[in-house]
Design goal:
About 40% of the residues lie in helices and about 15% in strands. It is an alpha/beta fold and about 375 residues long. It folds into 2 domains: about 120 residues, Enolase-like, domain 1 (2-Layer Sandwich); about 240 residues, Enolase-like C-terminal domain (TIM Barrel, Alpha-Beta Barrel). Strands 4, 5, 6, 7, 8, 9, 10, 11 and 12 form a 9-stranded mixed β-sheet that branches. Strands 1-2-3 form a 3-stranded antiparallel β-sheet. Helix 7 links the parallel strand 5 and strand 6. The two termini are about 35 Å apart. The structure holds magnesium ion (MG). The site of magnesium ion has 6 residues, from loops.
């Protein structure tokens, strides 16, 4: 079995906002083979930048484009191909966009292996622990407190037992952030887990204040209150915050997570499987986290391709309390698959068909295909 092409398909909504849904523009990766089996993956970052990494011609031994590294190779040799892609992009890659594209290809290779084996990916990963997962509704903090509270009530009415609000106007005034969180708590009651995602760094003093104040409202975790590389800040915050601190959606590669755990004291990490190096690297990160008693609750704020890949990975984890489920309204999320992945009473089930177990909706791809 040989790889005949690695195709990058770019999709984009007609209008893209600065703060919006995580899949306003999307890079789907298809790995084609000479036996007619095609693998599907997603790279979660700027699609046009991804495309350059995929298409770039040979520059030097450690600065190559990824397609050229894969043509003619056996797609079932996932480990060897992962190392090959990593080794030959190390000058410009390792932790940035190259790793995002490697992620999309890796996910597609696992899809191929599952289709060839006739098994869902989670079975191939060697240790399915559960097939049903509690989803937390992941949404944006709205411009007004009332609108955010209304959304919280909607998510609860839709069956979610947990929900996260992030970005928007959070940050800048920690007392306002606490008032908003208190209003959400009052609206949904004590039985619902609430997560707050700052998105961008706030001053360490504000983060310390929020970590203490949010605990009074039972916040499940406070996400990304500091800059991704502020390991000293995270170490100080995690040492004293009664609210658990979570971060990691902007990292790639296992070493970044080792640093967050070793030096930042993080007890919850959030790798994005379409950024960190795919399913393969996610397993290495998960093993490291598990050995330290750290929880891995992956970042999952894009299309149903990422949702499927995330479900297969977390189905094998010993302790993953939640699937992040993008609860915004966006056709690239809701209509990308023939059978979209939907929660029922807040529970999402891992696909059981071979590979990722998903099929793309060609109408949606044709409608939103982007060729700048
Ligand atoms: Mg986040």
């Amino acid at each position: 079995m040989r790889i005949t092409d690695v195709e990058g398909i770019m999709l984009r909504l007609p209008e893209v906002r600065e703060i919006g849904d995580g899949c306003q523009s999307v890079m789907i990766i298809k790995v084609h083979t000479d036996e007619g089996v095609t693998g599907i993956g997603e790279a979660h970052t700027n699609p046009l930048v991804n495309k350059a990494v995929l298409d770039a011609p040979l520059c030097s031994i450690s600065a190559q484009g990824l397609r050229g590294l894969l043509l003619g190779e056996d797609p079932r040799d996932i480990g060897r191909l992962w190392d090959r892609m990593d080794r030959h992009t190390q000058t410009y890659g390792r932790r940035g966009v190259a790793m995002h594209v490697i992620s999309g290809i890796d996910i597609a290779l696992w899809d191929i292996l599952g289709k060839v084996a006739g098994l869902p990916v989670h079975r191939l990963l060697g240790g399915t622990r559960r097939t049903h997962h509690r989803a937390y509704a992941s949404d944006l903090s709205q411009p007004s407190l009332e609108a955010t509270v209304d959304l919280a009530k909607q998510h609860k009415a839709n069956g979610y037992k947990a929900m996260k609000f992030g970005w928007g106007d959070l940050g800048g005034d920690p007392r306002k952030d606490v008032r908003r969180t208190a209003a959400i708590r009052a609206a949904v009651g004590d039985e619902v887990d609430i997560m707050i995602d700052m998105g961008f760094a706030v001053p360490l003093d504000d983060a310390l204040y929020l970590g203490r104040a949010f605990a009074e409202h039972g916040v499940y975790f406070l996400e990304e209150p500091l800059a991704p590389d502020d390991l000293d800040g995270f170490a100080r915050l995690t040492a004293v915050s009664p609210t658990p601190i979570a971060t990691g959606e902007k990292e790639a590669g296992v070493h970044a997570y080792r640093m967050l755990m070793e030096h930042g004291g993080l007890r919850i990490i959030q790798p994005d499987i379409a950024r960190v190096g795919g399913i393969s690297e996610s397993l290495r990160i998960a093993a490291l986290a598990e050995s330290r008693g750290v929880r891995m609750i992956p970042h999952c704020w894009s299309t149903d391709i990422l949702v499927a890949a995330t479900l297969h990975v977390i189905s094998t984890l010993r302790d993953c309390p939640y699937l992040e489920y993008n609860a915004t309204d966006n056709p690239l999320r809701t209509d990308l698959l023939v059978d979209p992945i939907r929660p029922v009473d807040g529970i999402v089930t891992v696909p059981e068909k071979p590979g990722l177990g998903i099929e793309l909706n060609q109408d949606t791809i044709d409608r939103y295909r982007w060729n700048p």
